[in-house]
Structures are given as C-alpha cells and as structure tokens.
Specification:
The chain has 257 residues and is of the alpha+beta class. It has four domains: 59 residues, no CATH class; 85 residues, Topoisomerase I, Chain A, domain 4, CATH 1.10.132.60; 69 residues, Orthogonal Bundle (Topoisomerase I, Chain A, domain 4), CATH 1.10.132.60; 31 residues, no CATH class. The protein has eight helices and six strands, in the order αβββααβαββαααα. Helix 2 packs antiparallel against helix 3 and helix 3 runs antiparallel to helix 6. The protein is elongated, with a radius of gyration of 27 Å.
Length: 257
C-alpha cells in the first residue's frame, strides 16, 4: 500500500506537468479490495495517506437513511467480512443467521423501526407513503399528540389486511403492546433480500439459497378457543386471597364433587 501511495502521487505529478495551468491532479486513495456493482455504486477497503484504513460505501443501501437499521447493519457487516476478512463462507453464514433470526422473531424491534420526515402537513400529500398514512391515523385518534410537518415519524410494517405496504405502518409501541404483529415477510423480501442479493450475486453461485428459511415464527393466541371462558374465570379470581383462589380454582376444575 505504501508503494501504491508513492506511485499514485508520482502519476498525479506527471499528469499535472503535462496539462497547462491551472489544471492540477492530486492523488487521494487506493483500495486493497473493491466491489463495483455499477457506476457510483461500490464498496471498498479504502487506504488514504495519513488515515487509518476503513470500509467505504457509495450508493448502496447501507449509506442511505430510508432503510431499516437491520439492513444497514447486515449489509455493512457482510461487506466487512467480504472485503476486509475476504471470507466468503463466513459472510454467507452471517446472512443466513440473520434471516433465520428474523423469521423466528429473534430480531430486536429497534432494528425494524424506520423513520421518515413529514415535509408538509399529512393531509397535503397527494401520494401517501407509509409514514404519511400513519400520521393521518394518529391525527384522527388524537390530534394533540399526532406528528406535524417537520416531525420524523417512526414506524414498523405490520401484518395487515391490506396488500399495500403504505397502508400497513404502525407505531413501535403498538408492536410491543401486541396490537399488531411484525410483517417479517416484508422485512425479508423488501428490505434484506434485494440489496444483499445484488452483492452476493457477484460472489456466490446460488445466492437465492442464502435466504431460504425452514423455521417460521407463528404468534400464539393468548387463550385460543377458550378465550371468553378463561377471561371470565380470570376476572372472578382478581382480588381474592390465596386461600379463596385455591378453593375457586378447585371448584372450576372438579365442580361440586
């Protein structure tokens, strides 16, 4: 790398001397490994004179703010493994593990929360994205606390009856309370798969296999078919002493035997 810096500086000086002033060429950096997807979309292990080496990402999803933190974190770490460690098997294993954890509901909710800013009042939008529709719903529920123009809206995509993602956004607190369930298929297909597949396609023979999952989390209903019965019995036990609870539970199970 030291020689690369020396040759880069030499080349810049040579070309500067060929052109007439005030044209001046300056050497900036070299890469020890480089992945070019297309024009202005690349990643590389960058070395600049006088600076420690680091991963540089240009034009990829990890450098943008409109994707879930899960993708940003996964893409960055995968590129670090590919470009810095140069370990293709480890990168594949890492992505597979993220996919498995997502589909088993083992990913922290904070990594699924997206955020977008309202550039105008929600009602003035002609084309309404997910964060706008959520803001409109919140305004209808409680105008005093609803987000307004200039605010950022944090949201999660949940499993809804609508086929449109724009109509399937909710607050993170609504996921925590159990009111809605995270749409894990959305985060796999629309967040992780496309951006990671475009990179893995350059280095893996069958990149689609990385996203296959054999285990899928299914939320359990709290009470199932006995919901109304159990809720009623639970209400009867509230406020009772331990002795009274024991007697009532025994009566519920065995009756008047």
């Amino acid at each position: 790398m030291k020689k690369a810096h020396e040759k880069g500086t030499e080349m810049a000086d040579y070309i500067t001397n060929i052109f007439l002033p005030p044209n001046e060429l300056e050497y900036e950096k070299s890469y020890s490994s480089f992945l070019l997807l297309k024009k202005k979309r690349y990643a590389g292990h960058k070395y600049e004179p006088g600076h420690p080496p680091k991963l540089q990402i240009k034009g990829l999803e990890a450098a943008r703010r409109d994707y879930a933190p899960l993708l940003v974190q996964t893409q960055k770490k995968m590129l670090n493994i590919l470009l810095l460690e140069r370990d293709k098997k480890k990168a594949i294993a890492y992505v597979k593990d993220v996919v498995q954890k997502l589909m088993k509901n083992e990913i922290d909710l904070s990594l699924l929360v997206m955020s977008k800013k309202l550039s105008r009042p929600p009602k003035e939008y002609k084309s309404r994205a997910a964060h706008v529709n959520l803001a409109l719903r919140l305004e209808k529920d409680n105008p005093q606390t609803a987000p307004v123009s200039g605010d950022r809206v944090d949201y999660v995509i949940y499993c809804s009856a609508s086929s449109k993602t724009s109509e399937s956004a909710c607050l993170p607190s609504e996921i925590k309370s159990g009111r809605y369930q995270v749409d894990r298929d959305y985060y796999l297909e629309k967040q992780l798969k496309g951006p990671l597949l475009r990179i893995l396609d350059k280095v893996v023979t069958k990149p689609e296999d990385v996203f296959q999952c054999s285990v899928i989390f299914k939320p359990r209903p709290k009470y199932g078919i006995f919901s109304s019965f159990l809720k009623k019995r639970k209400a009867e036990l509230e406020g009772c002493s331990p002795e009274e609870k024991s007697k009532k539970v025994s009566h519920m199970i065995f009756g008047n035997r």
